Amino acid sequence: MANASVKEIVEKLGGLDNIAAAAHCATRLRVTTKDKTKVDFDGLKKLNGVMGVVDGATQTQIVIGADVADVYREFCDYTGVSEEEEVYDAKALKEDLKGKKGAGLTLFFETVARIFNPIVPALAGCGFLSAIIMVAMAFGASMQSETFATFVAISMAVFTFIPFLLASSTAKVFKMNEYVALTICAAMMASKWSGLIADGVNYYHFLGIPFRVVNYSSSVLPIVFAVIVASYIEKGLNKLVKGPLKIIIVPAFTILFGTMITFWTVGPITYAIGQALANGMNWLFEHGGPIAGLVYGGIYSSMVVLGIHHGMVPVLTQMIANQGFNFVSPTSGSANIGQAGAAFGVWLKTKNAQKKANAASACIAACVGITEPVIYGVTVPSGKPFFFAAIGGAVGGFIAGLLRLKAYAMGGPSFLNFGMFLGGENAVTNCLLVMVCFAIAFVVAAALTYFFWNPEEAE
Fold this sequence. Notes:
Elements: H1 6-12, E1 19-24, E2 28-33, H2 41-46, E3 52-55, E4 60-63, H3 68-79, H4 90-97, H5 103-116, H6 120-138, H7 146-160, H8 162-173, H9 178-188, H10 191-198, E5 203-206, E6 209-212, H11 221-240, H12 246-287, H13 289-306, H14 313-323, H15 329-349, H16 353-367, H17 372-382, H18 384-402, H19 427-452
Antiparallel strand pairs: 1-2, 2-4, 3-4, 5-6
Helix pairs in contact: 4-5, 5-8, 6-7, 8-9, 8-11, 9-11, 9-12, 11-12, 12-13, 12-14, 13-15, 13-18, 15-16, 15-17, 15-18, 15-19, 16-17, 17-18, 18-19
């Protein structure tokens, strides 16, 4: 690490013997410790290069920033933990949360984060490629070009086959055989079903029981719940079946029972729920656009702090799959850029050289879509700037909702990722207006911070 060493981080986490497992997301090193009482949270926060620390339900989350992947590899080498083999014990988490306020929601969002965090880099990467495609199309690129058509196919891969990614990550969270989970996903996405849909067949039968034929390509919730159901089937069979045939019987009947239960019930129900969530979010922005934008833009940064913003990933993915756009990203982008504006205000106002440097780098990171460094490293520690950023996000979100602005690709909404807003009949206008909303959010947050924040309050 350029600043604090991995050795120093481990010491503050209670030493090598206290490290159980580790993983990472876009900006955070997520460490599961054996005994949380041994973690020196104040000491971690004071280390150079550590932008913030979040005490999660089962993890200590250390905000590193863009270098987190390098830090993670070094951390794994130093501690000896296996990369990506993170320990997640839902039963232990339930016991830990028992009797605590909001335990159910904490458990839900913790589980959602564990499922979606591993696939975020793939979503963000293909989202950025999709944004580039939007820019290219605005300048006349055509699918007649084999090169461009290939580029489009590559960029859409993660969205078309996202059930496979989710099958893998969900299997790890619920501790079932990953390859059995992937096989169930393959059965759900077999070409047989798309062929039937193309022929106008809506229902098919197994053992005389009808089930709705659904195209699960690009869907989110069906495979997650299919794997959850299959994980319990697998656990039950493992207890029931003994002897040498176990290695054959357990996976065979897990695949069979898991897939058929999904076809009969879980798949169609969760597919309908996913559609309803996406349609519901559309309805909110179509009928209450400015108010929806105001509220969502104002609270989005708080959702990031609480970690519940991950819950929006399946909804946004489903919205893009359903209609090719969403109304939400221009609003959440306004919240992100509001945080950048507050950091700029801190940079202008503070006399502390270290804080000035942190604010400058965090402002740049937020402008390109990475907000955790600015939230945990600048605005939250500074107090009022975090709320000024929320006001900026609310103002930008209000305008975005009023104008019904759209995003046409997944990704981190930011100035850098402007291509995701190019689409539809008025592609350039839509994109320019989104950038205007971002600029307004930035200016409002920066001005409020500069005029109404006293640096001495945060000293």
